[in-house]
């Protein structure tokens, strides 16, 4: 089976980009024929199954200078697609590159597919995944805080990782931390907020929290990022727009209890009361109570952190990729079977723990181009 994956984000610093790079790597490691197609001026991994087409036009996104909007070269990409002759087309993002592989308005993937005549019951969500070996409690090293003189190495670290921007709902976290810090001081509790990442809201957030024991570390990656995760104590993620929030998986894999909102995808990977808390942004006092309560209770933090790490192990990248490949294989075979073409053999079987059970008859008969030989996958990953 041949799969062409279209994405508008591959060189950016975000969870989607990391996931797609990881999927491409797993495909190479397991001998699967998956090609990733993008168009960007940003640097992307130089790998044989990643194809970056020079944009016809590109410009920085307003207010987000490290993000870009591009117009991809339609004809060269379509010619490449014709040479690859994919059995399945996967659209990872609803931007200009994704539109080449997906006709219509994919702002809401399920509704777009329904308008094309696809039964909603034939849609399924891909199993999320993260590098479970790279985000693990074994990276814990409290001495890492000695490298930051402004911090107290003994304080409880409340961590945020991600873009420092308005769409991550960080003004809410700013106000929240001010209230929490006031309560913490009243109770004689020692805690600091650590913000890892960068973005257009950083300067304002840093200014507003300059007297509230908050520290901004900018972008971090690799083992250093893994160590910062595992050496922290609590993870807060107030976004109401994320469809997954890979950092929520990474933090739990690192052994941290997490606080997330009741909107969007992050709540789907949090076991409320066991691995963290799912809270409404309409009740900031509940967030303050949970933060203060966790800071004050070492035993509860340890218990919930251990449960969080355990719960994330089924979301290993290996399991996620095998589920990804199974979904596409089922779509392809269902499409062929609808035309009376049955496989001569079952093909390679996954060697890892299987993902969630797939519903039958996932996809319709025709791919996005209307070609008779192409099945289309529109399950999405943040």
Outline the structure in words:
It is a single chain. By secondary structure, the chain is of the alpha/beta class. The chain has two domains: 2-129 and 316-377; 137-315, Rossmann fold (3-Layer(aba) Sandwich). The protein is 34% helix and 16% strand. It has eleven helices and 13 strands. The strands form three sheets. Strands 9-8-7-10-11-12 form a six-stranded parallel beta sheet, sandwiched between helices. α5 (170-186) links the parallel β7 (156-161) and β8 (191-196). α8 packs across α10 (298-312). It is globular, with a radius of gyration of 22 Å.
Give a quick precis of the structure:
The protein contains eleven helices and 13 strands. The protein is an alpha/beta fold. The two termini are 24 Å apart.
Topology, element by element:
Layout: E1 2-6, H1 15-30, E2 33-38, E3 50-52, E4 57-61, E5 64-71, H2 74-84, E6 88-91, H3 96-101, H4 109-115, E7 156-161, H5 170-186, E8 191-196, H6 202-208, E9 214-218, H7 222-230, E10 234-237, H8 246-253, E11 258-261, E12 276-279, H9 284-296, H10 298-312, H11 317-337, E13 375-377
Parallel strand pairs: 1-2, 1-6, 2-3, 6-13, 7-8, 7-10, 8-9, 10-11, 11-12
Antiparallel strand pairs: 4-5
